[in-house]
Design goal:
The chain is of the alpha/beta class. Helix content is 58%, strand content 11%. It has a 5-stranded parallel β-sheet with strand order 2-3-1-4-5, sandwiched between helices. The radius of gyration is 18 Å and the shape is globular. The mean pLDDT is 90. Keywords: ATP-binding, Coenzyme A biosynthesis, Cytoplasm, Kinase, Nucleotide-binding, Transferase.
Length: 217
Amino acid sequence: MSDNALETEFSDLLFYIKDKLIIGLTGGIGSGKTAASDHFMKLGVDIVDADVIAREIVKPNSKTLSKVAEQFGADILLENGELNRAKLRERIFTNDDDKQALNSIMQPAIRYALLEQLNKARSEYVILSAPLLFENGLEKYCQRVLVVDVPVETQLQRASSRDTVSSNHIQSIIDSQIDRTTRLSKADDVIDNSADLTHLYKQVTQLHNKYLTLAVG
């Protein structure tokens, strides 16, 4: 598909999502964004997850994966044809040019898939979940932005425990994301996830009722 044809399809998809209430959901690593989106899903809300889409578009034999292999070499693939995520992650964390090259391939494909899924959503409102919502400019598709927030110290503790990696590695990921103060300044709604899951679920339910009212209105 040519760039012009792709842009035309982007415009068409944007036209169709204009009448949907889209809530952008974001938060730093270890904030509990996934726990929040899972509870919204249990309440009957359609979730469009940028992380899931990013994995789906680089399945073996996909056009996007072929472009990645062409850019970074065939050794970026595993023997079974899947993307060697660990190797690619290492490349982009140590080389800004490689990171930009990957983004130039991935972001248009992710954006198109996001818009397709948003267009297909049928719940009263839809959640667009993306850890890099602001960094990738995805907030422009949303009417409101919800940030799941915890102190940086909590991010380090939870993410290190969950992913069994060093706190230094988690800190490097935090440093690569938008800072907490800026993220909060861009939020329309905030969930404080510094307590337990019961506290998180209560806030999600309250916001769900609020968003239903906004969608109907």
